[in-house]
Amino acid sequence: MNAEVRPVIKPATASVGTLAAMLAVFSRDVRVAFRQRQDLLNPLLFFIMVVTLFPLGVSPEVAFLKQSGAGILWVAALLSVLLSLDHLFRHDFDDGTLEQLILQPQPLFLLILAKTAAHWVLTGLPLVLLAPVLGVMVHLDGNSIAILCLTLLIGTPVLSLVGAIGAALTLGLRSAGVLLSLLIIPLYIPVLIFGTGTVAAAAEGAPVAGYVALMGAFLMLAVTLAPFAAAAALRISLSNS
Questions:
Q1: Which of 98, 90, 134, 105 is nearest to 18 (CA)?
Q2: Is residue 160 within 8 Å of residue 124, measured between CB atoms?
Q3: pLDDT along the chain (241 residues), means of 10
Q4: Could you give one GO CC term from the UniProt record (predicted)?
Q5: Where are the alpha helices (DSSP H) in 121-207?
């Protein structure tokens, strides 16, 4: 009796391979970052220095710091993330790893998402963890500090994801840091406005659920669209290099 031969379909194989590739890219970027500690520490030191020097340069009055403290911390976090974006693809571009990523069978946008996640864990998450200490320094109350940390936790991944697009577009260009700032800062403005607005609303006792929902929408939109845009920008940059 001849048994009917049917093709064996393994739908999970591709997804498992893609997930393994994403984890490999993520872990590699984390290991490389810890080997180059100066790139890892520079954004954190910059964040601390900006927040520390701002009261000295503007006003150390408690009332002023309570009113503008959230804005100070958000601007400092934005600039710190921007400072680290130039290294997101630069090292891989210099040593040829980026070309190998593009040649992989896995979708490039998922590998870029893994690299961006590693960038956020190494840059954005430490800023969130430092925010309560610096929030106390600028005389924010406990509720404002909690809302500030929540907005940074939602907003800093958006900064990394949107910044990945600019880093990919300016890859291989001279004076890429200046051009990257000009391209990305206008796109950061909505996140900055709603991040500081959420903390201001919490300080006044107003409901913040709407602000948080909008920031969550920004994050979902960035996670959905930014990796595709960054992948396309990387292919354009590498084809022109």
A1: 105
A2: yes
A3: 41 63 90 81 90 83 84 92 87 82 87 94 93 90 91 95 91 76 90 92 87 94 94 86 63
A4: plasma membrane
A5: 125-137, 142-169, 176-203
